[in-house]
Amino acid sequence: MYTCVFVDWENIEKAAKKDYGAVLNFDEFVKVIRIKAIRNKSLLVGVYAYGDFDKGIAGFMSALVNLGVEPKHVITKTAQEYLKGSTDIEMSLDILDTMYNYPHITDFMFISGDSDLRYIIKRLKMHGKKIIIMAFRANTARYLIENADEYICLEEFPQILRKVTASEREQAEKALISNDFAHIIVKKLNELEKGDKEFVGLNLLRKKLLDHYPGKTTLVNETLTSLIDNNVFKITQVANPNDPENPTKACCLDKNNPVVKHILKVK
C-alpha cells in the first residue's frame, strides 16, 4: 500500500485558532501525520501542504521543507480581489493528477474538514482508492466523516497545539492598532451596534465596507480576518430572519479586547 497526504494548511490553522485559541505545533503536527500515514505498513510517498504562505511567518515554507513537507503556495489574493476557493481548486487538481498519473497510490489522506472535498472523494472512490480524513471534529463536514474509510480526530492529539505566546499576541495587537483600516472597521461596527437591529450580520458589515470602499476588496477581507483571528470580533451563528433554514453569522465587538479599547478610547 502507498499513501499520499494532502494538507489544507489554512483550513486546519483557522480551526485551531477559532476553536482552541491556539496555533499548530508544526513538529508534533507533522509527526502525527507521518505516524498515521504509515499505519498498516503503508509506504508514505509524499506530504503536500497548501496555503497562501505569504500570510505566514518568515521562513515558514523552509520550516515545512525541513520537516519533510512540500509546501504548495497558492495565491489567494490580488491587488483587486480575494480569490475565494483557490486553495481548494489547486489541491483538488493535484489530487486528480496524482490519481491518474500514479495509479499505484492506494490511500489518499486529507488533512482538512472542508465539505468541498466531497467531489474529489466521490471520484477517488470510483477508482477504488481508500480515503482517510484527519481534522478537528467540530470543523469536519458530516459527509467527510460518513464517507471516509477512516476518520482520525485531531482532538486526540493535544500535543499538536500550543497556546499563542504573550509576545505573539502583543505583536498581533500592535499590528492591528497601527492598521488604519482596522480602525475604520472597528468604528463602523461600533456604529452599527448602536442601531435598532437585533444583531449585526458579518455579511452586512462586509457589504457596507465594500460599498464605501469598492476598490478595497482584498484589504477589507484581510483586515476582517485579522480582527476575527485576534478576537477583536466575536462571531456567533444566529437565525436568519430572511432565510430561516440557513443561519447566518453575527459579529460584535469584544469591548474588553485591547485593540477595541485603544481604537474606541475605552478605559
Give a written overview of the molecule:
With 267 residues, the protein is α/β, with parallel strands linked by helices. It has two domains: 2-163, 3-Layer(aba) Sandwich (Rossmann fold); 166-263, Orthogonal Bundle (Arc Repressor Mutant, subunit A). It has helices spanning 9-20, 26-37, 60-66, 86-101, 118-126, 142-147, 166-177, 180-193, 202-212, 217-229, 258-263; strands spanning 2-8, 22-24, 43-51, 70-73, 107-111, 130-135, 150-153, 161-163, 200-201, 233-238, 248-253. Strands 4-3-1-5-6-7 form a six-stranded parallel β-sheet, sandwiched between helices. β3 (43-51), α3 and β4 (70-73) form a beta-alpha-beta unit. The chain starts with a strand and ends with a helix.
Give the SSE map:
Blueprint: E1 2-8, H1 9-20, E2 22-24, H2 26-37, E3 43-51, H3 60-66, E4 70-73, H4 86-101, E5 107-111, H5 118-126, E6 130-135, H6 142-147, E7 150-153, E8 161-163, H7 166-177, H8 180-193, E9 200-201, H9 202-212, H10 217-229, E10 233-238, E11 248-253, H11 258-263
Q: In a nutshell, what does this entry contain?
A:
The protein contains eleven helices and eleven strands. It has 267 residues and is α/β, with parallel strands linked by helices.
Task: Quickly list its features.
2 domains; six-stranded parallel β-sheet; alpha/beta; globular; Arc Repressor Mutant, subunit A; 267 residues
- How much helix, percentage-wise, in residues? 40-55%
| Backbone CA Rg | 20 Å
Report the strand count: 11
Give the integer mean of the pLDDT values: 85
Architecture (CATH level 2) name of the largest domain? 3-Layer(aba) Sandwich
Percent of sequence in beta strands: 15-25%
Could you name the CATH class of the largest domain?
Answer: Alpha Beta
What is the count of DSSP helices, taking H or I runs of 4+ residues?
Answer: 11
First and last CA, distance: 61 Å
Task: Supply the helix-strand structural class.
Answer: alpha/beta
- Main beta-sheet strand count, sense and barrel state: 6 strands, parallel
- Which word captures the global form? globular
Output the CATH topology of the largest domain. Rossmann fold
Return the string of H and E elements: EHEHEHEHEHEHEEHHEHHEEH
